[in-house]
């Protein structure tokens, strides 16, 4: 650690043990959770808790709004009635700090963060704390989802000077924006083992008055150390490391941390890890005939099955919660994030491709059903998240999980009809409660509910297979399936009458790009045109509302307005690297699903813009933010970890390989090599921190397949060949439709396409590698054989 300051009292910089991902050997990221600063505990993470949602209206006697009332961010608006003189991130706040020689208090969070709600209610609504923050500090609120650059820079500081990080993140800065103290959640008052927020403020105020020069010197020293430590560059290296070696190391590190019984890669809390699952599937494909290959497949499929059976999945309304507070995937932290749904839809689709088990395709469909119903905006875009907390009844204080949990009495009243043919008296409610593990006392452990808010309530989690449940009551398996589905539908209809969790209606380019991929890939794999249409509408939304034609730049955010309109901040918040990388990936996936070349053309334009705005011409790789946009920040970073979302550099490496396959442009292959070379040291040291980049490295050092289908896109034989390709798991490929027009976009990019002909006027497939193509194939079964080789 980089010299954490101890003069403020023990515990200030110590995040709760529930949080500690910074030292995880499995490549998780601080972005993965909101956290408490409470003392370490070896027990499971509590799921209960009390939050508040102001929803832009006063929740205390303090009626006068602060300047955050003029912001668009739902998170900032939640703080608009605090008795704190909040500023948004910007020059006005910085100028005030310099003019008045005050430290900046920077507080970063997001609107569906449970511990952010806790701190807002306990501290930021407190009149005395509000007075301290307003008189002795320049207080700045940041929505981390609007400004990931600000979040990453100061999270790097918090993680380097403590044992972890998370949200809310609270950092004290000099007027020149250099950090000198940081932490996460603070309770308002001192406890036996932790420092209260009011005490922290008083001590920092005193130290700023008495030891300001020492603080400034320490801040400069730590910033310089962080700058050196965070540098990612090619240096003298010419080539990246061996893909085979990094692949093997990454697999071994994952194998060591794998939970044999419940799947996943930690004890608790336990997170969905789509980047890890994607790596394992890719590793299986290249090691199919080995024991390690079979092991990788089993690890991924078992993890996905246990997650889908657990309480982390919303069995009533579909979709996945953020993470599990226990090893068994039983009790979740209940917020639902768009980026989880997007990536998990792809993971379950890939599991279906590999296994042929419709269990996985059903889960993928359920995820997208949830997104279409609850997170879709009429403009075609997708909203960011749903909160964990909601009022149990209208007018009551929000509680975590209130919308999702059930009592036995509720279920018995809703599902009271008898089940015919059972070996004992049985209602459909009793059948459902047996299958999903509901009990009179509730199935939530007191250790996961320290405030007792969930006492007597249950989270649905599959306890038995359909076969075992059917055998227990002497019923037919299909009859049980129908009864359970009917029961879940009745619970779903009843749940509609509960107060819904807060919806963060902010729309982010990056997460919308991931969601375009989710709908496009799943729609292509399952052959469902309606899902591909959602992806198409998402891409149209991005082009219409989040792309500036004049400059060729993406915007980061827009917001749901009244009457289904879309609003923007003024001035606009321009896109970051992840916005470009994830949208380009989404467009490439959409082209392969729809064969509409306009999406491929736009992807090329966005990649050109990304290269212009973010590429490091000296060190290789991409910076997370534009130089101009991050002016004033002490660091300009390159994200070097695949966590809840993949690193934008990892995704960019894949995009560059695919774009080279679609166009043959050597510059993109050269950039991919430079990027992978720049990350060589990180890959060698902890490949498990970058599983998505390890996949890109392996793909680069293998041969990319160009699968070309020559035919009429509307013809049945063409569609049959395309569906054959989509049904097979082939991550290292590009799929191209050649319609015979030499003036088409792709024919201009790849002249060899004009030499490929249809055989006997039938749709014909060619599999090309290293500028050499297979014999022409017209039968899907023959193409399947070739692709499985």
UniProtKB/TrEMBL annotation:
Coiled coil: none annotated. It comes from the Eukaryota. InterPro entries: 6-hairpin_glycosidase_sf, 6hp_glycosidase-like_sf, Ssp411, Ssp411-like_TRX, Thioredoxin-like_sf. One of its GO terms (biological process) is carbohydrate metabolic process. Keywords: Developmental protein, Differentiation, Secreted, Signal, Spermatogenesis. Pfam families: Thioredox_DsbH. It is found in: Secreted. Residues 52-63 have a biased composition (Polar residues). PANTHER family: SPERMATOGENESIS-ASSOCIATED PROTEIN 20. This is Spermatogenesis-associated protein 20. It comes from Panthera pardus (Leopard). The gene is SPATA20.
């Amino acid at each position: 650690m980089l010299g954490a300051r101890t003069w403020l009292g023990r515990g200030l910089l110590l995040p709760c043990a529930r949080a500690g991902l910074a030292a995880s050997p499995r490549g998780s990221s601080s972005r993965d959770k909101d956290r408490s600063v409470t003392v370490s505990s070896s027990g499971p993470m509590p799921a209960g808790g009390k939050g508040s949602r102001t929803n832009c209206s006063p929740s205390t006697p303090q009626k006068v709004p602060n300047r955050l009332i003029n912001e668009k961010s739902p998170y900032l608006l939640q703080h608009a009635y605090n008795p704190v003189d909040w500023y948004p991130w910007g020059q006005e706040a910085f100028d005030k700090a310099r003019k008045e020689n005050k430290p900046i208090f920077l507080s970063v969070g997001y609107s569906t963060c449970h511990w952010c709600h806790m701190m807002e209610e306990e501290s930021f609504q407190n009149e005395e704390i509000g007075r301290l923050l307003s008189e002795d500090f320049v207080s700045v609120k940041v929505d981390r989802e609007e400004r990931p650059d600000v979040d990453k820079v100061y999270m790097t500081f918090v993680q380097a000077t403590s044992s972890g990080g998370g949200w809310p993140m609270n950092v004290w800065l000099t007027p020149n924006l250099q950090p000198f103290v940081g932490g996460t959640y603070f309770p308002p008052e001192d406890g036996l083992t932790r420092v209260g927020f009011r005490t922290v403020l008083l001590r920092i105020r005193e130290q700023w008055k008495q030891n300001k020069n020492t603080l400034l010197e320490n801040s400069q020293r730590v910033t310089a150390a962080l700058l050196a430590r965070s540098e990612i560059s090619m240096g003298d290296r010419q080539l990246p490391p061996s893909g085979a070696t990094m692949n093997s190391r990454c697999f071994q590190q994952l194998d060591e941390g794998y939970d044999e019984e419940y799947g996943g890669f930690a004890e608790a809390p336990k997170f969905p890890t789509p980047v890890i699952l994607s790596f394992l599937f890719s590793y299986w494909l290249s090691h199919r005939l080995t024991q390690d290959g079979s092991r990788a497949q089993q690890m991924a499929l078992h993890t996905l099955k246990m997650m889908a059976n657990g309480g982390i999945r919303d069995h009533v309304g579909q979709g996945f919660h953020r993470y599990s507070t226990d090893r068994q995937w039983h009790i979740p932290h209940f917020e639902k994030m768009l980026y989880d749904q997007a990536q998990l839809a792809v993971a379950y689709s890939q599991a279906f491709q590999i296994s042929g088990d419709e269990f996985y395709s059903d889960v993928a469909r359920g995820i997208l059903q949830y997104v279409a119903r609850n997170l879709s905006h009429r403009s075609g875009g997708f909203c960011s998240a749903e909160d964990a907390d909601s009022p149990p009844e209208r007018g009551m204080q929000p509680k975590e999980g209130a919308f999702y949990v059930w009592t036995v009495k509720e279920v018995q009243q809703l599902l009271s009809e008898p089940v015919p043919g059972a070996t004992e008296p049985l209602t459909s409610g009793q059948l459902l409660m047996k299958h999903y593990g509901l009990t009179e006392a509730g199935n939530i452990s007191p250790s996961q509910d320290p405030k007792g808010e969930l006492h007597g309530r249950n989270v649905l989690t599959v306890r038995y297979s359909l076969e075992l449940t059917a055998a227990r009551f002497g019923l037919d398996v299909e009859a049980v399936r129908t009864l359970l589905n009917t029961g879940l539908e009745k619970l779903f209809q009843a749940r509609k009458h509960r107060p819904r969790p807060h919806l963060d209606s902010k729309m982010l380019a990056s997460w919308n790009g991931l969601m375009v991929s989710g709908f496009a890939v799943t729609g292509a794999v399952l052959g469902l045109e309606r899902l591909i249409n959602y992806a198409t509408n998402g891409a149209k939304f991005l082009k219409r509302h989040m792309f500036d034609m004049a400059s060729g730049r993406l915007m980061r955010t827009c917001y749901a307005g009244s009457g289904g309109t879309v609003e923007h901040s003024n001035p606009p918040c321009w896109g970051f690297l992840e916005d470009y990388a994830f949208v380009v990936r989404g467009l490439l996936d959409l082209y392969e699903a729809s064969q509409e070349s306009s999406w491929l053309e736009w992807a090329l334009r966005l990649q050109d813009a990304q290269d212009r705005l973010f590429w490091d011409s000296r060190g290789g790789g991409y910076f997370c933010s534009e130089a101009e946009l991050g002016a004033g920040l002490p660091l300009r970073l390159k994200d070097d970890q695949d966590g809840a979302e993949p690193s934008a550099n990892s995704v960019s490496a894949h995009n560059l390989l695919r774009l080279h396959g679609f166009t043959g442009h050597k510059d993109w292959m050269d950039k991919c090599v430079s990027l992978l070379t720049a990350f060589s040291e990180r890959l060698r040291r902890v490949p498990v921190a970058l599983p998505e980049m390890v996949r890109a490295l392996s793909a680069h050092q293998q041969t990319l397949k160009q699968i070309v289908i020559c035919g009429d896109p509307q013809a049945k034989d063409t569609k049959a060949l395309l569906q054959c390709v989509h049904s097979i798991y082939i991550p290292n490929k590009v799929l191209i439709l050649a319609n015979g027009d030499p003036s088409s976009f792709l024919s201009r990019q790849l002249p060899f396409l004009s030499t490929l002909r249809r055989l006997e006027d039938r749709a014909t497939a060619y599999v090309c590698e290293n500028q050499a193509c297979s014999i022409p194939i017209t039968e899907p079964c023959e193409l399947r054989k070739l692709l499985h080789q």
